[in-house]
Specification:
This protein is α+β, with helices and mostly antiparallel strands. The protein folds into two domains: 1-111, no CATH class; 133-259, Outer Surface Protein A, domain 3, CATH 3.90.930. The chain contains ten helices and five strands, in the order ααααααββαββαααβ. It has helices at 4-16, 38-60, 62-68, 70-83, 98-104, 114-129, 166-171, 209-219, 224-234, 240-249; strands at 149-153, 158-162, 191-198, 201-206, 253-258. A hairpin with a 2-residue loop joins β3 and β4. It starts with a helix and ends with a strand.
């Protein structure tokens, strides 16, 4: 009798392997083929498994589906699935590499902005699932030397840079978008974004180069003074006090550590 672990590996291979041998599935010797052939039986499971994973990807990448159309999306997802087998039973964990896949997928190569849009959608997806930040007593911050304090970003905060206006592309493909203004995606202009959760809602916000540099420094656990130097070097007009106040009120900055 075939061991359970091997049965499971063979089942996954027969369902989701790009190199599946349709004439002789690995499970052929372990399944009842009295009514239907092994390849026919595994084909049913294969179609069902792929359809379920594609549905999960539709939930994660709705804008990509709108941009390329349902048929193209399904075909590209199927190709992606067969070369990127799920490693977890939780479909919330699946699909991170889809943007890089699209960048190298020959039929989509001319749509160079898709990788950036996919990255935004993946981070939006992760942000919506991340833990809430814990309550903080900010009054304690006044007693700590700025040389030895590290400000912390909320768990849901994601930082994105893109050479395309991905925030505009994303917004114009939402169900509540009122206008269909043309977007010049050929114009390469650096876009700096923060994705974060506010209550039950996930937000996307554009920021300045100085603000982005400040938050990026915090994400790398730099001390406050060092982060301020980096941010002001990027933008000498930035008001550090106003910027910190804004990000604390939005719960983008959600805590601190005394280094």
């Amino acid at each position: 009798m075939t061991a359970l672990a091997e049965l499971q590996r063979n089942f996954i291979s027969d369902c989701l392997s790009e190199n599946i041998n349709s004439k002789k599935p690995l499970l052929a010797k372990d399944i009842d083929i009295s009514l239907i052939s092994a390849s026919g039986l595994m084909g049913i499971y294969r179609s069902s498994a792929i359809a379920n994973i594609i549905y999960a990807m539709k939930l994660t990448y709705p804008v990509i589906e709108k941009l390329v159309g349902e048929d193209f999306f399904r075909a590209s997802c199927k190709k992606f699935i067969l070369s990127h087998c799920p490693k977890s039973a939780n479909m919330d964990d699946y699909g991170q590499e889809f943007g890089s896949f699209l960048a190298n997928f020959e039929p989509a190569k001319q749509l160079t902005y898709l990788k950036s849009v996919a990255q935004l959608e993946w981070y939006y997806h992760l942000s919506s699932l991340d833990d809430d930040s814990k309550p903080v007593d900010w009054s304690l911050l006044s007693s700590i030397d700025a040389l030895h304090v590290k400000l912390l970003l909320a768990p849901s905060v994601k930082l994105i840079t893109s050479p395309f206006p991905v925030n505009n592309i994303w917004q114009m493909n939402q169900s509540n978008a009122y206008e269909n203004k043309p977007i010049d995606i050929s114009l390469e202009q650096e876009t700096l974004l923060i994705i974060f959760r506010s209550g039950l809602s996930t937000k996307i916000m554009t920021v300045t180069a100085g603000e982005f540099a400040l938050l990026l420094s915090f994400s790398k656990q730099y001390y406050l003074n060092d982060a301020i130097e980096i941010a002001t070097a990027k933008d000498n007009t930035i008001s550090i006090d106003d910027t910190l106040k804004k990000f604390i009120e939005l719960n983008i900055i959600s805590g601190f550590e005394n280094g």
